[in-house]
Every structure is written in structure tokens, then in C-alpha cells.
Amino acid sequence: MRVVAPTLALFLKPVSLLTITILATSLFVCFFSSRQSTVPSETGGRMARSFMLWLHGLGDSGPANEPIRTFFSSPELRNAIWSFPSAPSTPVSCNYGAVMPSWFDIYEIPITAESPKDESGLLKAVENVHAMIDKEVAAGTNPENVFVCGFSQGGALTLASVLLYPKTLGGGAVFSGWVPFNSSVIDKITPEAKKTPILWSHGMADRTVLFEAGQAGPPFLQQSGMTCEFKAYPDLAHSISTEELLSLESWIKTRVTSSS
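Now predict its structure.
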């Protein structure tokens, strides 16, 4: 598969100073200033406010990912509110203890389906994500119009945050992520959370989070009583392609609810 430019490429490498960057050539940041509750749709109805939460990968930052929202121009998402938080800077084991933005610890690179997991650090990060969601819901956004998306480490956190949130959300989108906890967490997933749809995208040429780690996602979700839409990209390495983002837009816009 040929990756259509522009591509947002984020690479993880087990070196002494591991960083993740986004190649955003020819992209620009589009800021949305309106936070009104509803806006007119093309059909004359009114679209409810939606909330898009994007979680970045290891060593990256929220602001560096803001160009992603320029791919989302559908009328159904005209009233979307975006949030690109940054992870706190902490020592990361796979990088020899170097301090960098990280949602939780990662012990080894490449990440496989059997890699050790930092469940305690993960659950603390989940609490912070839930606080962001709760704040937006308290501001008037229907939980079913909340979409959590993330790449790599952010994708793993996305999965955990959606599964452990007590209500049904609009959806969770995992890009090049993995299952960051053991099967014991299944008992903590509420019946409402099991209704949240999951979109999982993974490059088959990924040498950082191996494709096998992504493939382990659907069986885990099935064991949890959930299903997900899994998309494999044959020539894609550890990065996000334009094709994936356009697919995400289509997936989200069909799930945004309208207000009467």
C-alpha cells in the first residue's frame, strides 16, 4: 500500500534518547473558536456538540498532533470540540530511564503481544483521561458523542480508558496500539462500556509495536464481550497515514448524534 502524502509519521526507537515526532509538512493547524452547544446541519436540523480527545504516543506532545483535526471537515463534525493533552514527563524503562512525555511506563521495544505491562501506571493515566471526559460531559456533551483516539502508547491508553469508562461512549479509535493490561481487567468492564464501538488500525510493517500486538486486540475484546472493526495496512510502518485518518472521519461522523 502506498501511503498518500501528507503522512503523520511517529517513530519509536530503543536508543538512549528516544523521541517521537510528527512529520507534518504541508499541514497547518486549524483552530476552532466556537464552543456553542449546537450548529445547523446541512439538512436543517441541529448537530449536537461532540468531543474528540486525541492521545499522543511516547515522547510526543499534544500540540504537535493538532494538525490531525484538519482532516475532519464533515458537516457532522462542525461542532466538534478537540482536545490534545500532553502526557507528563517521567522516566521510561525502554529508554534506559530517560525522562520524556509518557502516559505510563514501557519496558521494552519492540512491543509484542506478550510484553510486560505497567498496569498501575496505566490505571493512573486512565483516571486522568476519565476526568477530561467527565468535565466535557458536565459541560453538556452527550457521552455517546465522546470519541477517544490515540496512537501507539496513546492508542493503548485509549483502549483502557474506553473499556473502563462506566458509560457508553461514541467510540474509541486505536492506531498502532496494543492491549496494555491482563485479562483480569475484564471483570471491571461495565455492560454500558461494552456497547462502545472500537476502531483498530495497525500497519503490518510496524517494527515498533508489532502487528501481532495489534492482532491480539480483537480476540481480547471478544473475550470481554465486545467487538471491534480491525483494519490492517500492509505497507504501513509505525505511523499514521492519511488513509487511516480519512477512514476515522467516516467512522466517527456516522456515530455523532443529532439534537432535536
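The longest strand covers residues 50-55.
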